[in-house]
Structure formats: structure tokens, C-alpha cells
Amino acid sequence: MKITDAKxxxxxxxxxxxxxxxxxDEGIYGLGxxxxxxxxxxxxxxxxxxxxxxxxxxxxxxxxxxxxYLYRGAYWRRGPVTMSAIAAVDxxxxxxxxxxxxxxxxxxxGGKSRSGVMVYGHANGETLEETVDEVGRYLDMGxxxxxxxxxxxxxxxxxxxxxxxxxxEPAEKGLPPEQTWSTEKYLNFAPKLFKKxxxxxxxxxxxxxxxxxxxxxxxxxxxxxxxxxxHLFWLEDTVPAELQEGFRIIRQHTTTPLAVGEVFNTIYDMxxxxxxxxxxxxxxxxxxxxxxxxxxxxxxxxxxxHIRTGFHGATDLSPITMAAALHFDLAINNFxxxxxxxHTPETDAVFPHAYTFEKGFMxxxxxxxxxxxxxxxxxxxxxxxxxxxxxxxxxxGTMFNW
Length: 402
Ligand code: EZ4
Ligand code: CO
Fold this sequence. Notes:
Elements: E1 3-11, E2 17-24, E3 29-33, H1 40-55, H2 63-73, H3 80-100, H4 105-108, E4 117-125, H5 128-140, E5 145-150, E6 172-173, E7 178-181, H6 183-201, E8 206-210, H7 217-227, E9 234-236, H8 246-253, E10 258-260, H9 271-275, E11 281-282, H10 292-304, E12 308-311, H11 319-331, E13 335-339, H12 345-350, E14 356-358, E15 361-363, H13 376-380, E16 387-388, E17 391-394, E18 399-400
Parallel strand pairs: 4-5, 4-13, 5-8, 7-17, 8-9, 9-10, 10-11, 11-12, 12-13
Antiparallel strand pairs: 1-2, 2-3, 4-15, 6-16, 14-15, 17-18
The site of cobalt (II) ion has 5 residues, from loops.
């Protein structure tokens, strides 16, 4: 089966999404997600100018070879733009293979290893009380795992507290919005939040929290230690993970499980974290991490070190990435949990999909391939709209991590 063409689509049903569609000489097409929040058109250009011409005429079934061709063949390896582009091709090819063989992608990845995929939802509030109430709302919706993020007294626009409830989206039109940060205020506040959540809602559900790369290792160690009585499922992205060795310090001090990796691009970003067992969950997504082909290697290596997956699943990953993740999660042995931020109804309409949510679990569905389509006509109604993720400054104005 030969690849005859590939097109890149841009749509903005509430937020920007980039989609790659690969066509074959047998009439089967495949879809891949190429969305890079805040830098979308860089990936569009990378695909259109540099990747699509190399795809024409290739055998669509040679998924591994095409992956290696694009990864090794660029010479300039890795990075979010390159790896998101490769991921889009990879997702589309797995989609094509599933459709050609008339089977859902999870069957190509080893078949079902479990009945459903446990997901966690996002409870966000402006205040501690509001966040505690939101956690209750998610439990009422049937979730068995909830991430809690709250506004902090004295800080403006804290990560995780956004517009709307079910559909949190941090990217804004115009130039990047500026937020403020104080580690002192945060560290004094977070354990109180966890305490109140456990007192109000009990122990019988998984509680998660994201630090969004804002701590130093010793600060992360303090938070991990003080959180131990509330037994978090994980503490995410405590420190910026460019320095993998930084995790050694955190690990020496706390038994709170650690998750990291949504900004990682390849297996080389995590080799120290794996081999020294410095983390418990790896979060690199199908989209950011070069597709299913590369994640198969990541999951295999992780399994040796007792590390499980907990893939990124924010709204800036399109329903195509969500579907790809669910097929993968269902199939591999060392699956841990899957993040699930709901897309808006407008986005769901542009990407009709087979996956479903029920009582805290998700199911990829049994449609051949990934089970997601792209409504080109409807998508045209939502033209690209430049938006940026926020930037973050300390209270004295120092530029910091968002
Ligand atoms: O801030 O995907 O765990 N989830 C996250 C996300 C990221 C966004 C950035 O675009 O950290 O909400
Ligand atoms: Co995160």
C-alpha cells in the first residue's frame, strides 16, 4: 500500500489543532495529531516543507522504517517540533494499518491487557474551598482519580485555574499572558489543600497534583514529605527536568510517588530517571514523544525499572492523540493512569471519535484504526487563531518557569 499524498489541516474550534492526513493508493487514509501549543505553525511548516515530500511513494505498512527515516534522516534530531511532526506521521500510519487490517490499533500493539483505561480528571478552583468542592463534583461524575489545582492567596493567575470548569485551557489570544509566582506561598498552601480534600472526601480515590516545574529539588523534597499523610497517587513535574540528576535529591527524602515527562521528546530525556528508578510514572505523550512506535520502546524500558505510564492528556492534544493513547494504554502491561481533560463540544464535533468515558474509565472503542475522523467542512469554520501559553514571574519580577 503506497502513500500517495499527505495534507496538513489547521483548525481552531476553541483552541488550535494541527492534523496530518495521509492518503494511500487503496483509498484508505490515516490521521495524526501535530498540535504544539503556542508554536503550532512551526510544525505545520516542518511537515509541509520537509516531511510530506519524503513520504510520497513509501509503503504505508513500513511504520518502523519510516519512523527511523524521519528521525535519523533529519540529522538534527529530537526537540518538540521535530518529534511532534514525526508523531503525526506515526499516528497516521498506525491508523492506516488498523483500517487496512480491519482491526482497532490496540490489537496491533499486543491486544487488550485490561478491560478499561483508568483516567484522572482535573478539579480546579480559585480558592481552597472551591477546589475541595470541585473534587467532590468529579467524584460524583464517577471519577476514581482526580487531580486538584487551586488558586493561592496573594497570587494572580496560578497554573491550573483557568477559564471554565470542565474545559481548562491555558493558551490565550494576543501576546503571552503574565502570571505571578511565590514558592513560599505555594509550599505553605499545598499541604493544607491536600489535607482538606482527604478530610472532606476520604481516602478511597486517587489524588494527584501538578507542580508544573516550579520547585528546586530540595523544595520538592519538602512538599513530597509534607504530602505523605495524604498519600498522593503522584506529584507531577516538581522540578524542571532538564537536569535528571536533580531527582536524586527528591527521591532521598520522600516516598510520595513522582511523575514527569509531558515536555520530554525522546527516550534519551529519561534514561537516568529510569535506570536509577528516580520516578514512578513517565508522562511523555504519544504526540510529544514521536508517536506509538517510539513509546513502545519507552514503555518496554520503563517496565524493567518498575515504572508505569501516565501519559499527558491535556486539551492541547487533539482527540487523535487521545485515541492513540487509549489504544496504547489498553494494550501495554505497565500502564498506570491516563490524564483526561475534556475537549469542548466544538472540538469533539470536528473530531468525531469512537472512544468513550464511563465511571472513571475510558475505552478506545472497536472501530478499525484509531477510531477518530476529521470533519474538514466543519473545521474550516474555525480559522487559525494565534495564541500563547502564559509566562510566569516571581513577585519581584524575575522571569520564572510557567
Ligand atoms: O500545562 O498541556 O498536566 N498537564 C499539564 C498541561 C499543560 C498544557 C500546556 O499546553 O501540565 O495542562
Ligand atoms: Co502537567
